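Entry 14. Structure prediction run on the chain below.
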Amino acid sequence: QVQLVESGGGLVQAGGSLRLSCAASGFAFSNYYMHWHRQAPGKEREWVATISNSGRRTSYADSVEGRFTISRDNAKMTMYLQMNNLKPEDTAVYSCSTQNYWGQGTQVTVSS
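Output returned:
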């Protein structure tokens, strides 16, 4: 069955960096676009970034453009989110998704 497992979250100071990973299994990973979303406490889930199946096309929410980089390694069936210059408002649970499948999420906390 389809599985998406995020990792790499943690506690970091403002201005710091983290790299999230989303390990996929159970489907033809290289055929599908992949997405990152996040949900902060008390807020609705928001889209963060998308990457095409080949990895050649990416798109970002305005709030993370220029600070976050989405990438993927189709051979490893893994997607990444490099997050630089983190801000307290980036604190959220980050989840990866594809088609109608979602991972369980990984917590990112940015202290000021």
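The mean pLDDT is 97.
Filed with the rest of this week's runs.
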